[in-house]
Task: structure prediction
Amino acid sequence: MIKLLVFDWDDVIILGAKEGYYVCYRETLKEFGIVFSEEELHRRIQRKWGQPFREELEELLIEHPELLKKACEVYEKKFWGDTFLRALKEVEGANTVLETLSRTYILAVATGNHPRMLSEKIMPSFRIPNVFRQILTAFDVPPARMKPHPYMLETIMNTQGVSSDETLYIGDAANDVLMAQRAHVEPIVVLTGHLTRMQAEQLGVKTIIPTVTDLPGILASRMA
Result:
């Protein structure tokens, strides 16, 4: 029986995060007169996707390592200003779904987003209900243990006293799927982020849903 639902945050609970990060990186590079094609920008960002922004910037500035320190300062100003937040939008009905699910399941989050961005900006702006028993971010774990390493999921399961066969992980990217599989947790993919249905199927995902608001129906069908 499922007891624990662990969610990725970006492009699962709130949409537009991918573009928000891209805009911050794009505008940071422009401060130094560096402009990539969208294809090259995407290729470099995806090499370190889900890692802290310093790792992403290091990849983007691989030819200009001397700019890294200053670029980190510029990026933080973009990220903590309105640049990132303006790109976000709500999943209609998601707050109601989260409140409903919290009455039956333990809810938690394993995300690459910054804990302060979540607590100080995103959650208040979108009135996200206080339903998560635990939130673990990439900034809370050693770099070598971030997604797709199973550490984040294993930590949450251990803290909540729940086994892997009592847990589901809901994400939108390949690293989400791989982390879940390595933790022996079943992944559910939402199609509001990185993966297409075909890509999710190629990763071995059995349950694929349009948005997080379709999750209650999936859970109900399993209990029937």
Notes: The longest strand covers residues 106-111. Residues 17-30 form the longest helix (14 residues). Residues 120 and 131 are 16 Å apart (CA to CA). The radius of gyration is 17 Å.
